[in-house]
Specification:
- By secondary structure, this protein is α+β, with helices and mostly antiparallel strands.
- The protein folds into three domains: 2-115, DNA Polymerase III, Chain A, domain 2, CATH 3.10.150; 126-242, Roll (DNA Polymerase III, Chain A, domain 2), CATH 3.10.150; 256-375, DNA Polymerase III, subunit A, domain 2 (DNA Polymerase III, Chain A, domain 2).
- 18% of the residues lie in helices and 43% in strands.
- The protein has seven helices and 28 strands.
- The strands form four sheets. The chain has a ten-stranded antiparallel β-sheet. A nine-stranded antiparallel β-sheet has the order 16-12-13-14-28-27-26-20-24.
- Strand 12 and strand 13 (166-172) form a beta hairpin.
- Helix 6 packs antiparallel against helix 7 (333-341).
- The N and C termini lie far apart (72 Å).
């Protein structure tokens, strides 16, 4: 195989491709990028880690067609240090590979292309179009509540429920729950005139990769659903991932419908108080003592305080209090701060029942969407 690439074009394709490259693995081929260069001047670029996959195609000057696998990280590192302009990649019959540009060249080894596991044939009969900026904005509102390596698979992903004019996303890691619901006009791409009525769970790692690859633009992204996979088409890229095959939790039972204490306050003021508390709070002190941020609702004030081996901090935030009933409740500072960071600088409605049942946070007047965040409390030692 002999092909000449524009260095920047190849780098732009390799960068998102690396999101689906496996780490150290017994299969060397899935640590690589599959290059299929044809005489029509196109080079297909594929990567996968057996859970997710990526495919795109770029224009190149193909002098001799071929099909090889080159270590993806090594190839990108080489491209980064090559001078700008054309880069020539030559692979001989023994798969010795020379990468050259100007007076510089690298000699590395490649693998036969037929050793690369074929990407699954994915045909999503149901799908829709949504702008990249809209998708990113909604996912960013709930992403913090997706679990990390939880033994319960559904907590490691976000639940999507989509109908003709409504998109709902929920994430829960067992300590906090994020809920986002928005009326949005989606372009139906279902086959055979089927209406949009979709429910699926997307792994958090997949959403993280999509947030890195997409942009805050009005350019559309097509999302298609098959029995086991979700497929994203945007620009010249195709990215797919397995979905989580499980029944999602009954999130409506977690979100309380009645409350004993209801207060209203400024989001920015509470966020600032939590950021100051985070400088002091420790997750664990000597022995088994745990530090926390304490909320004390008294009259027209919310007292935010933290005491730990590092010191203490106190803040007072004015509130509007519906019934003047008080409460003292403790929280993991990071859990609360994660929720406040995705709230706009608006008024918050915060509703409590008792010190063991957490708080429901509802940003007020945020666009035309409904956002709810529920954070479980931490048991205080007094």
């Amino acid at each position: 195989m002999v092909v000449i690439f524009d260095r920047d074009t190849l780098m732009n394709a390799l960068t998102p491709a690396l999101y689906t490259v496996a780490g150290k693995n017994t299969m060397a081929t899935i640590e690589g990028v599959h290059l299929v260069c044809t005489e029509d001047g196109k080079c297909k670029i594929e990567t996968q880690d057996l859970e997710k996959g990526f495919r795109t195609s770029i224009i190149a000057n193909v002098e001799e067609e071929g099909d090889v696998v080159i270590n993806a990280n090594k190839l990108l590192q080489i491209m980064k240090v090559m001078p700008a302009g054309n880069v020539k990649v030559s692979v001989d019959s023994n798969f010795s590979t020379r990468i050259e540009s100007g007076l510089s060249h690298f000699d590395i080894k490649a693998l036969p292309g037929d050793q690369f596991p074929p990407l699954p044939e994915i045909i999503g009969e149901r799908g829709f179009l949504i702008s990249q900026s809209m998708f990113r904005r909604l996912v960013n509102r709930i992403y913090f509540a997706i679990g990390q390596n939880d033994s319960r698979p559904v907590f490691n992903g976000a639940y999507f429920k989509i109908t003709n004019d409504q998109l709902l996303i929920v994430a829960c890691d067992g300590n906090r729950l994020a809920y986002c619901e928005k009326n949005v006009q989606l372009e139906n791409r279902c086959h055979d005139g089927m209406s949009l009525n979709l429910r699926f769970i997307v792994p958090g790692k997949t959403l993280s990769d999509i947030l890195k690859m997409t942009k805050d633009t009005d350019e559309t992204m097509e999302i298609r659903i098959s029995r086991r996979y979700i497929i994203f088409h945007f620009g010249a890229y195709m990215f797919f991932s397995k979905t989580i095959d499980a029944e999602y939790i009954d999130y409506n039972r977690i979100l309380p419908s009645t409350h004993r204490v209801v207060t209203y306050l400024d989001a920015q003021s509470l966020r600032g108080a939590l950021e100051r508390s985070s400088l002091i709070v420790e997750d664990r002190l000597a022995g088994s003592i745990r530090a926390y941020v304490k909320f004390t609702v008294e009259g027209k004030e919310l007292l935010v305080s933290t005491t730990s081996a590092n010191g203490n901090v106190f803040d007072t935030i004015p509130i509007t209090h519906e019934d003047d009933e008080g409460i003292v409740i403790g929280f993991n500072c990071r859990f609360m701060l994660d929720a406040l960071k995705v709230c706009d600088d608006c008024e918050l409605k915060m509703s409590y029942n008792n010190p063991l049942k957490g708080v429901l946070i509802e940003p007020q007047d945020c666009e035309d969407a409904t956002y709810k965040y529920f954070v479980m409390p931490i048991r205080m030692n007094n």
